[in-house]
Please model this.
Amino acid sequence: MVVTIKGKKYWLWRAVDANSYVLDALLQSRRNKGAALRMMRKLLKGHGTTPRVIVTDKLRSYSAAKSELMPGVEHRSHKSINNRAENSHFPVRRWERRMMRFKSARQCQRFISSHGQIANLFLLHRKYLTAADHRQLRSHAISTWREIASSIGE
Model:
């Protein structure tokens, strides 16, 4: 995803798992092999395990970085196979419009880093839940959020 800040283009790199949870997000000014390596190293360091499969768009930088870091991992890239990652960009676009654009790259990075974790807290897969279970999980997520917000305010 491209984010324009003060006339300069930045690339938003985002990793999403099979359940649509945002694993990590990184804002970078380039979209080359070095940028892909940085994102993949950050992911591997944060999660400690190598994935079984990586699904990306058709950017060649992904395959170059993957072959260097994780040569045994399967890599799938197809026109619409990475829709989970693409759909996770919508909240960022919505927030960008509401804020009348991001003012700096640092502000954008801080927002996307925290927004992904908060969105994961409230992401409930409604398809697999009864109404009672959904209400219970939603109230648990809200109470967890209130605990986090009150501890920050103190």
The domain at 2-123 is CATH 3.30.420.10 (Nucleotidyltransferase; domain 5). The mean pLDDT is 81. The chain is about 50% helix and 20% strand. The first helix runs from residue 33 to 47.
